[in-house]
Amino acid sequence: MADDLAFISRQNAEEYLSISTQEKASASREKKKWCRPSGDQMKINSDGAFHPAAGDGGWGFVIRNAAGEVMRAGAGKIQKLLDAIHAEVAACCEGVRVAAECGMGHAQASASIG
């Protein structure tokens, strides 16, 4: 099941990158602002980092409620990464895992891929 999740996540990330790259070519860079989740949802923002020469990197996430209050956060190192997308997916998965463990049933994930 973990292999299936990783495969699906990687496919989604690659599709996103493909679309995102096309959009970036035509749009100017704008500073992104955090957007609140709707209703009683939580929002999981995650980010991964990849060091190609070493094949390792790190991950981080923050979970906020609709008021913008930080409910949980985490960060760590990852060994044996394949690429930057692998780091981004690992970061997102860690945020989702923590949200599930804390009983946060209504959450939306937002990764900084690209």
UniProtKB/TrEMBL annotation:
Superkingdom of origin: Eukaryota
MF annotations from Gene Ontology: nucleic acid binding; RNA-DNA hybrid ribonuclease activity
Protein name: RNase H type-1 domain-containing protein
Gene3D superfamilies in the record: Ribonuclease H-like superfamily/Ribonuclease H (3.30.420.10)
Domain RNase H type-1: 45-106
Species this protein is from: Panicum miliaceum
Sections of the chain in a coiled coil: none
SUPFAM superfamilies cross-referenced by the UniProt entry: Ribonuclease H-like
CDD domains found in the cross-reference section: RNase_H_like
